[in-house]
Amino acid sequence: MFFLVLVLASIAALLVVVWPLSAALFLASVLASVLHPWQNRLARRLGHRPRVAAGLLTVGVVVALVVPLAIIGAVVVDEVTQWVGTIRIAFEQAGIEGVIELLPERLRGITRALVERTPLQNVQLGDVSAPGGRAAAVFGGVLGATTRLVIQTVLMLVMLFFLLVDGRALVSWLSEVMPLPVGQFRELVHEIQKVSHSVLVSSLATAAVQTVAALAGFLIARVPHPFFFSLVTFFFALIPVIGAGGITFFLGLMLLLGGRLLAGGFLVAWAILVVGLADNLVKPLLIRADLRLHGAVVFFSLLGGLLALGPIGLLVGPMAVTLFLALMRIQKRGTTTSDLVLDTSPSGSYVHGATAD
Question: 349 by DSSP, 3-state: which?
Answer without folding.
Answer: coil
